[in-house]
Amino acid sequence: MKMGNSSFVAIALLMSVVVLCNGGKTSSYVRKLIQNPVDMPLDSDAFAIPPGYNAPQQVHITQGDHVGQAMIISWVTVDEPGSNEVIYWSNSSLQNFTAEGEVFTYTYYNYTSGFIHHTNITNLEFNTTYFYVVGIGNTTRQFWFTTPPEVGIDVPYTFGIIGDLGQTFDSNTTLTHYQNSNGSTLLYVGDLSYADDYPYHDNVRWDTWGRFTERSAAYQPWIWTAGNHEIDFDLQIGETQSFKPFSNRYHTPYESSQRTSTLQYKWLTTELPKIDRTETSWLIVLMHAPWYNSYYSHYMEGEPMRVVFESLFIKYKVDVVFAGHVHAYERSERVSNDKYNITNGICTPVKDISAPVYITNGDGGNQEGLSINMTQPQPSYSAYREASFGHGTLEIKNRTHAFYSWNRNQDGYAVEADKLWLFNRYWNPLDDSTTNIP
């Protein structure tokens, strides 16, 4: 799916190969407090309910088409459905437009959701600020967003990357630091509210998470990838539908790919050949479980998927893959292991400048805490790893270069702890390694 302009494309997938030999850098930084983070209390200001009868809350937006001329506006009302309409206008026009959407509700064990609204507004102009209003009567709320630039292979654009955020005090720090960055769209690599860590998957924690993230997600698109904490399948309490809270609350523009019901592999093998790199220079993949992971947490969980998908990423020259799941940070060199199979016995990742860089950003700050146990010595493919909370940013400069940085929370302020220039695999397929790989 093109995210706004055709200088890049991001593909989201739902769901760790290591051989022990000396690798890159393991950060010497040690977080002061290793114990698990603490969830913010329900009466925290971060979860404040907006005043007024039936006031819209949990407002969030995501891109509504392939090229950035549509936006899905979502919100929740509690007392009654209220209005399905979004009123919107551009900063260069006094003319108001109206779009009407749909309302959804769901039940989960002993919880009944509020009225969840989704409205896709279309035919937007590129690089334009729009104001929008949701609500009815005396209880309306106004927000704004800016659409991406017009299509062009050298158009600059900046993403943020966050995963496994949760709703702890550390989560609050991560989100605050991201808001102080120059990111225009957030790539979210799965595991949102962590409501399933509470008894009976307490869906009240979906509501608090929606109010917590509204301060960013109502003003810029968050591009969603689901993780294992969104599955919410629990036979013990009679919940047999997977992804029920997530799929009701967080809509995505999957229909714009014109592939609405195929299996993931079939969808991807159809989607990747559509990408014309002469007009779409950057190819970014989002997934949840990393394929290359040198932490003991979730070790090798991504291997079945890697065996099936990795050759596609190399064939179609994926530039970078962002994942979460492991609650720490790690960046790989460009390596592949796509020739491995159970008969040849060769299972060592090798340097491959046609392969993506794999980056794990599962360090948002959730209540389960950091993954601190690493394999030793550091694998050769692992360029940098650190057990800290933080967020990433990816600044696409033009068709050939992008600048990536990872920003450690540092228990109070953001520190650029890891950074590199990425060279585009189609337009500039040079070696951008930061460590030597045998």
Q: How many whole angstroms does the radius of gyration measure?
A: 21 Å
Following the backbone from N to C, one meets helices and strands in this order, namely EEEEEEEEEEEEEHEHEHHEHEEEEEEEEE
State the secondary-structure class.
Answer: alpha+beta
How are the strands of the largest sheet arranged?
1-16-17-21-18-22-2
Strand content is 25-35%
Q: Describe the main β-sheet briefly.
A: 7 strands, mixed
Average pLDDT across residues?
90
Q: How many strands appear in the DSSP assignment?
A: 25
How far apart, in Å, are the first and last alpha carbons?
36 Å
Helix share bin: 10-25%
Unreliable segments (pLDDT under 50, ≥5 consecutive)?
14-21
Structural shape:
globular
Number of helices: 5
List keywords for this structure.
six-stranded mixed β-sheet, 25 strands, EC 3.1.3.2, PAPs-like, acid phosphatase activity, 438 residues, globular, seven-stranded mixed β-sheet, alpha+beta, metal-binding
